[in-house]
Design a protein that fits this description.
With 208 residues, the chain is mainly α. The chain has a domain of 86 residues: Four Helix Bundle (Hemerythrin (Met), subunit A), CATH 1.20.120.1200. Helix 1 runs antiparallel to helix 2. The longest helix has 29 residues. The termini are far apart.
């Protein structure tokens, strides 16, 4: 066995056990940390496959930003996990059955495609450049318009998700953008005129 193959088995085993720990540990903070380990181990497997861009994006975006945000929110909210785990044991057999069926389908699909689809050479190696450089050239030269359209669709989806998830809660102060837009300049500042009054002089008291 070669060193890359041994490293792949090691990273794959760590990824599998860390992913199982995400859904099995009791503390949500520990689950978030195990998910960080899962993402980092998966990034290592991408590096072994010469997909440097995917590995870097997985570490920077998910481990460096998303998971840090999740961990901060979980630690600040202090979620009571016991009510959420009440139905875990009842749903475990169904979840295992679904996972086994999905695993069999994925293995069958990979086996069928490996027999039918001919193996092609890596375009990055054929062009004599790294995976990240080749992906950047292909993305911003050949597929610039689909890339911009996808970015626009994601932006519209983010903006649409905000009003869809906005709901009124009692006892919580919320902003009303419609009222903020309709406000006039004269309504922002109110000048109050008050008559100036000189306070009456206080009598001086002498101590004997």
């Amino acid at each position: 066995m070669t060193f890359p193959l041994i490293s792949f088995y090691l990273f794959a085993a760590i990824t599998t056990f860390a992913a199982l720990a995400v859904v099995s540990v009791r503390s949500p903070v520990h689950a978030a940390l195990c998910l960080v380990l899962t993402f980092f181990s998966a990034a290592c497997t991408w590096l072994l496959a010469d997909a440097e861009f995917l590995a870097i994006a997985l570490v920077l975006v998910y481990v460096g930003a998303v998971m840090v945000l999740f961990l901060f929110v979980v630690m600040m909210l202090d979620v009571d996990i016991d009510p959420l785990r009440e139905g875990f044991i009842k749903a475990l057999p169904v979840g295992l059955a679904v996972a086994i069926v999905m695993l069999v389908e994925m293995l069958a699909l990979i086996g069928v495609r490996s027999l039918q689809v001919p193996q092609i050479a890596d375009p990055a190696l054929a062009a004599g450049m790294s995976n990240t450089q080749w992906l950047a050239l292909a993305l911003f030269n050949q597929f610039l318009l689909p890339f911009e359209v996808a970015a626009l669709i994601l932006t519209v989806a983010i903006v649409a998700a905000i009003p869809l998830t906005l709901r009124r809660r009692s006892g919580v102060r919320m902003q009303n953008p419609a009222q903020q837009v309709r406000v006039q300049a004269r309504e922002r500042i109110r000048v109050v005129k008050m008559a100036a009054e000189r306070p009456a002089p206080q009598p001086e008291t002498t101590t004997p």
